[in-house]
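Section 3.1 - Work completed
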Amino acid sequence: MSAFNQTSLAGSDPSQIIAEADAAVATIHAARAAIGKLIYGQETVVERVLVTLLSGGHGLLVGVPGLAKTKLVETLGTVLGLDERRVQFTPDLMPSDILGSEVMDQDAEGHRSFRFLKGPIFAQLLMADEINRASPRTQSALLQAMQEYHVTIAGQRYDLPAPFHVLATQNPLEQEGTYPLPEAQLDRFLLQIDVVYPDRDAERRMLFETTGTSDATPERVMDAAGLRNIQQLVRRLPVGASVVEAILELVRSARPGENSDKKLASVIAWGPGPRASQALMLAVRARALIDGRYAPSVDDVVALAEPVLQHRMSLSFAARADGLTVRDVIGTLKSRIG
């Protein structure tokens, strides 16, 4: 309660926010439990995907094949009650295969007219599977949609459903047949979520649960309207001055021209823009709500620093030649605010 007294938002009723937050927390816990029945050993991944969706953003899932990235997205669509569609990205995929295209119709009197056939992007949850296997031209077809929530075909604007989220999966770039995502598109993803191998206990459970005579099926916990209500609640949660300053310090110190440490600044080729600060501001609120807290802390900033920043910055050639990674740099930056 003290967090509300110290950092309450103008025009907000703390008791009302608390009541709404309590109801939202119960729904979120039920959703996590439903997801956990099918996805084993990926608690951090599930949390970060929920942070992404509750923040109203898009997520990039990065990991080698076979780690249930596709299954996670399909499960989320069912559990959250969203209209979910999947596009398998391949080198020959065209932008019209995602956005849709115009076709010519002819009526009984011979009059011809164009009709727009909507593509799979007109869904509430779009899964872009193996997004880095498509050409940059096709990847860029998502840019306008992810930022402006509409597409333009032949000069005509078509609004996308609400809510609209893209969850893209990506194979590591060292694998054959992939194309690096453009920096402008990477910046559209709220979080980059690294999917790692499950631990031994989770993999043991997986062996028994997935090789029997019956498979578990996901249960619907909420609907699109419920998700939008929680997204609006996330934006109303108060944020303390110390958290805001931690966000600004972290993001600004990741830019080569802003870091007072000349040695650290010299290893950064380019850093995150203001969109990273906005992403952190939303993500820390969502993480706090998932944990059942009414306001975020600096610990939330530290926990989400890597998924927010790692795809929004790059190191110099000399730093990479010395074996330094973006995670190493972010770890140093986190230590200064944690």
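Second construct:
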Amino acid sequence: MMAEALLISAAALCRTSNQTTLSTTTTIMGLLKLATLSIILPATSYFCILGLLIAFPSLQTHAFYLHRVSLTWFKDLNVPEAFGFLPNQVKSFSIQTSDGEKLHAWHVLPLGVYSRNQEHLLAAPSGSDLALKLLRDDPESRLVIYFHGTAGCLASGWRPDSYRGISSASPDKIHVLTADYRGYGQSTGMPSEDGLLLDGIAMVDWAIHQAGIPASRIVIFGQSLGTAVAISLIRHYASEIPAVSFSGTVLVASFSDVATLTATYRIGGVIPVLSPLSRVPPLLAFFNSFLRSTWMSKDRIGEFIRRSESDAIAQKYHLTFIHAEDDTDIDCLHTDVLFWHAVNATKSIGIGYEELEHEKQLMKKEWGSGGWTVEWRTDKGLIRQEMLKYGVHDRLMAYPATSLAILKAFQATDPGFGR
């Protein structure tokens, strides 16, 4: 009887052990399947999205420009007071492009001009041209033509604060003209690389021919996507006969080109675009070959500098790059690349990237927690790079460093301005 009991107990233990092993094996297999699915499903979804962007170029346009993301819910863009401006400090109007699109634009009066004319501005009827008259009739007035970044509209995020910050550099003189590109905000059309250049040309034409402000009293400003538009624009005008030269150009949070950007860009600093493919260069090159908008800013800035260095252009150029080291949207290395392409274009035999980086270390002016700056001067102009420690991707638009860079750009053609 004892032996039978031992055998029964042994058999029970064996069954229990087998069941435990089976249960453990089942659990492990379940976890492995779950882990596999957690990798396969996102990867499959990711490549499906990329495939859709290739198959349907219009989706690519929406994904790159994000022009349908307003970021100004329940606010009327024709009521600038809703974004912190004084009554009638901002004139909301339309600018016509050469191909028939209408751009929704703002003309922002500097606070000094507004305060001196407040009573007249408040009494002015709807549709009055008083703001334009205040800009046009002052021979000392200055104008910043502002090109904003992707997503949102002219009133989104930090943009209204940045208009106020820009004017603060000389509150009696610096006006701001900004407009939504085609397809953004209340502007008509659909964005494209060629189309945004036409938008920029339309804004300059309004400034020169409607507002009567010569190019020597205009600074071109761009942030993020706006830097690509600004670079394309100044290259265009440098190629005109005769060439048109602006007082200066300030570029904040630039990118060198879309192909390089897609390999590093993360939406909101988190969601990757093509960065997962960057470790497989042939695959990355394959997807980049389908890009509709390439925005080759690194090549265009070189062309602009070469033309500006030629004897055909009399006025000196003034070019400033600003970037924040904590920018998680566009890596500040993009600005290093653009600065190199610009400097390289000033030398007949060129200069290597590493060689320039070595020279920058010798020329740097360190500002501690504020960052650093480097200036490259030639007989024909100045190329300046300023790296801030802080400012992320868009906050630095409203920082004093940006306002001061714009003031210096105006002083490039008039050293006494703002003093």
